[in-house]
Amino acid sequence: RNPLILDTDGGIDDAQALVMLLAHGVRPVAVTTVFGNVPLELATRNMQAVLALCEAAEIPVISGQSAPLSQPMVNATHVHGEDGLGGADIPADLPPIAGTDAVGFLREMISGQMEQGGKTDLLMIGPLTNLAVALTLDPGLASGIGQLTIMGGTVYGRGNTTPAAEFNIYADPEAADIVLRADIPTLIVPWEPCVSHFVDGAAMDLLFDGHADTPLGKFNKAIADRSRHVAVSYGGDDVFRFVDPFAAAVVIDPDLIRTTTDASSAVALAPGLTRGMTLVDPSRRLGTPPVTFIETGDVARLTEIYAASVRWHPSRQ
Ligand code: BDR
Ligand code: CA
Fold it and tell me: What distance in angstroms lies between residue 288's CA and the mean position of ligand 2's atoms?
């Protein structure tokens, strides 16, 4: 496997995605952070907290872009809570972070690997600003990325933040457009399969039965409960949706992917109702390099990967 960098905006599902990677032995070489669900400082602190809970504090956390390229900031505290973790308990004393230049780190890591004939994989589960800045400074980086996996956008134009736009794209449409126009092998988990792949509330209660007593177990349960609460508060059923963990699961086990659409893609940038909408063109008239949108996955396998992560004890590995 190529070295993997996790780039994240520090929300509840981001936290679970990181736990999942570690529980399945996929250790990122670094976690880079970006503004998004919460401001950058909180996103960074949250990922440090997850690493501490997972007894993996040696993985460096490097903060990155604190604002979108060309629009005012947005956030998603209505989903993730003011702290980004729905008020879940986290360790009080966190070590200093390893750096504050995620863009510089991306450039050094990817080009360093390229010099040795290797590639770097990226899992991006927040706004795409860090990578967009790195690619703007150094377009040649694109050829050093082995696999870019993104949670973001839509495949049929049905957004979660506006009728047309998904949050990670809406939060920085210009950045997302730069990334989609780069020639990088890209796999996207868009919003629609995040809606249709879930675990129902009763199954979630069973899944946590006897597994919510350690600090990490309690944390996993608290962020899962927050996710279920959000689903209900938006008028839906009591379900747990994977979202960022869907993308993490795809990195852990690509065999869970069932159906996909290959298409050229770009982002609608004009002001108005469609700003931040992902354009998806299987007939490739957009002229951008084709990317792969996941439409369906094996929900039993997804659930299994998730369940193993909430039952994982780091000190018993
Ligand atoms: C995405 O936006 C954030 O709220 C989540 O963490 C996820 O990455 C879902 O639209
Ligand atoms: Ca996220």
Answer: 25
Examine the pLDDT at 317 and tell me if it is beyond 80: no
Mean pLDDT of 21-50: 97
Residue 92 scores a pLDDT above 80 = yes
pLDDT at 316: 74
- Going by C-alpha positions, the residue among 23, 15, 168 that lies closest to residue 88 is 15
46: left (phi over 0), alpha (psi -120 to 50) or beta: alpha
HEC-encoded secondary structure of 42-101: HHHHHHHHHHHHCCCCCCCEEECCCCCCCCCCCCCHHHHCCCCCCCCCCCCCCCCCCECC
pLDDT at 52 over 90: yes
49: region left, alpha or beta (phi > 0 left; psi from -120 to 50 alpha): alpha
Which residue's CA is the closest to the ligand 1 atom numbered 4?
Answer: 37
Count Cα neighbours of 39 within 13 Å in the Cβ-side half-sphere. Answer: 3
Q: Which two tokens stand for residue 224?
A: 């899962």
Could you tell me the distance, in angstroms and rounded to a whole number, from the CA of residue 27 to the centre of ligand 1?
21
- Cβ 3 vs Cβ 30: under 8 Å: no
Interface ipTM above 0.90? yes
- Two structure tokens written together for 251: 């990195």
